[in-house]
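Budget justification aside, the reviewers requested a transparent look at the raw inputs and outputs of the sequence design task funded under Objective 1. We therefore reproduce one unedited record. The lines immediately below are the structure tokens for a 528-residue chain.
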């Protein structure tokens, strides 16, 4: 009697299985973070709507201006080393170079502390210089003296998110970023309204809630390292600070932070200089809504770079390409509903959320929404270029985008105000993404566009156009939201083969109704 031999997989089959397993792991892990981002965004958005409706227009404009200054300094604090953390720590961990992990911790922490002291100290010592940069002289500066301390708090928080992602702990990120942080801020807003307090109370509340959350997050990270056995292998005595390696990667990519600063905060600063707080409020009020569609991309990005870095360490470029395009189509479909609501249906949604006094802001929402979705639909081209080490190209296109945005902003904002800010930001975002996508040709094994997904993107464009025409006929928000849900469902059903829904989330097949929908009109496999 012959003994049945176990089936032996060909090496190519094994590699293909590993490639799909890595991609599946990224999408599933990111899905938890996506759910968390949806939860946190809902809470944050509720807080923002309450703030907008409670505060006077000039008060909200001053508060938004202060947060823009914080975002400006937060973008340059740490000299971009957080990106070095996301790329190098997974590589060091894969190679068990724990002395370099310790050195990286020390390097990044030291830089953040030094930058925070310089930034906060400068603002506190020279408030009169800041007053010259705003048309409304008093309130924005008073708020900034408080809010500026959010820079070190948010810098440490962002660093910790990157570290948790490196050690593959999406649950901890989910709890801190998506449950604790937004809940704390919502509590501050509710207390603001309950006590009928002012915007100064709001600023102190934001600062205190952020500091408490960051301290809790630090404790969670130490616990994670102990549980994974990493903490025991870290030694200050044997620390090897890979400063040259990390700085060579991170410093040039600081231009990426500068691009974000120029596109998302410089316009607000110029509005505050040339116009009063009401123009700042009209422009900034729609920012949270315009960024809704970024939720899937931000959630998937946390795990994308560490996993892509591990594939790069194995020279698996086909695996990176598969990871890239499957992630791109997932975030495109997941961002589609919010894109439609903020682009095709921008006018009724703006009035519904913020009231008639902000009705004119709908055009700014529509423009920014288009720019963000154009970036989202083509996936993580920027992150992929960084993983592949195409630093020089990234720096060049970053400066091209910044210069374009700056030129357009200086020309358009003084004359057109918030509309000029929206146009300059959107044009720069679109051009920047085109240049990033073109850069994928620099890597073998990666495609600038995967024509396998052409029909998928065509369906997205057609659906958005149809819904735009529908809102001309009716501006009933409830009807439009229902139609958006129907269109999204149809797109998923039609594109289920490209999304590989059953392969990625086999648990869905356990739900009878979902299983019936996914397997509807699908040919049955032939009998053996």
């Amino acid at each position: 009697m012959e003994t049945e031999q176990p089936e032996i997989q060909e090496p190519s089959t094994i590699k293909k299985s590993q490639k799909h397993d890595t991609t599946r792991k990224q999408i599933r892990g990111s899905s938890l973070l996506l759910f968390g981002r949806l939860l946190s965004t809902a809470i944050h958005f509720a807080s923002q709507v309450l703030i907008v409706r409670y505060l006077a227009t000039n008060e909200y404009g001053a508060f938004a201006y202060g947060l823009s200054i914080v975002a400006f300094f937060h973008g340059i604090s740490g000299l971009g080393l957080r990106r070095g953390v996301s790329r190098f720590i997974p590589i060091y961990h894969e190679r068990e170079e724990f002395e370099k992990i310790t050195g990286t911790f020390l390097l990044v922490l030291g830089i953040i502390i030094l930058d925070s002291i310089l930034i906060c100290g400068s603002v506190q010592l020279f408030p009169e210089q800041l007053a010259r940069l705003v048309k409304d002289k008093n309130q924005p500066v008073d708020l900034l003296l408080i809010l500026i301390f959010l820079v070190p708090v948010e810098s440490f928080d962002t660093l910790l998110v990157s570290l948790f992602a490196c050690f593959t702990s999406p649950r901890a990120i989910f709890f801190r970023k998506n449950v604790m942080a937004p809940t704390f801020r919502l509590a501050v807003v509710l207390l603001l309204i309950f006590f009928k307090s002012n915007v100064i109370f709001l600023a102190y509340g934001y600062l205190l809630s952020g500091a408490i959350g960051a301290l809790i997050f630090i404790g969670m990270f130490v616990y994670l390292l102990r549980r994974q056995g990493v903490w025991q292998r870290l030694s200050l005595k044997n620390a090897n600070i890979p400063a040259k390696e990390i700085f060579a990667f991170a410093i040039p990519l600081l231009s990426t932070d500068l691009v974000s600063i120029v596109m998302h905060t410089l316009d607000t600063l110029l509005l505050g200089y040339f116009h009063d707080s009401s123009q700042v409020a009209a422009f900034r009020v729609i920012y949270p809504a315009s960024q809704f569609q970024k939720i899937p991309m931000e959630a998937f990005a946390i795990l994308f770079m560490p996993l892509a870095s591990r594939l790069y360490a194995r020279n698996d470029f086909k695996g990176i390409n598969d990871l890239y395009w499957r992630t791109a189509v997932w975030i495109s479909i997941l961002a589609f509903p919010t894109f439609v609501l903020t682009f095709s249906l921008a006018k009724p949604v703006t009035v519904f959320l913020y009231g008639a006094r902000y009705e004119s802001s709908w055009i700014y929402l529509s423009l920014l929404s288009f720019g963000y979705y154009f970036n989202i639909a083509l996936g993580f081209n920027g992150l992929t270029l960084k993983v592949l080490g195409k630093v020089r190209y990234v720096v060049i296109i970053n400066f091209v985008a910044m210069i374009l945005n700056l030129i357009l902003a200086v020309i358009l904002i003084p004359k057109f105000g918030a509309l000029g800010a929206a146009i300059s930001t959107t044009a720069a975002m679109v051009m920047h993404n085109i240049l990033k996508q073109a850069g994928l040709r620099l890597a073998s094994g990666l495609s600038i566009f995967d024509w396998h997904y052409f029909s998928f993107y065509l369906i997205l464009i057609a659906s958005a156009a149809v819904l735009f025409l529908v809102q001309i006929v009716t501006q009933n928000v409830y009807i439009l939201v229902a139609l958006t849900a129907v269109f999204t469902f149809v797109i998923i059903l039609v594109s289920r083969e490209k999304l590989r829904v059953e392969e990625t989330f086999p648990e869905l097949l356990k739900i009878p109704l979902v299983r019936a929908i996914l397997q509807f009109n699908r040919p049955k496999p032939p009998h053996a």
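Residues 1-19 have pLDDT under 50 and may be disordered. The two ends are 25 Å apart (CA to CA). Computational costs for records of this kind are itemized in the attached budget.
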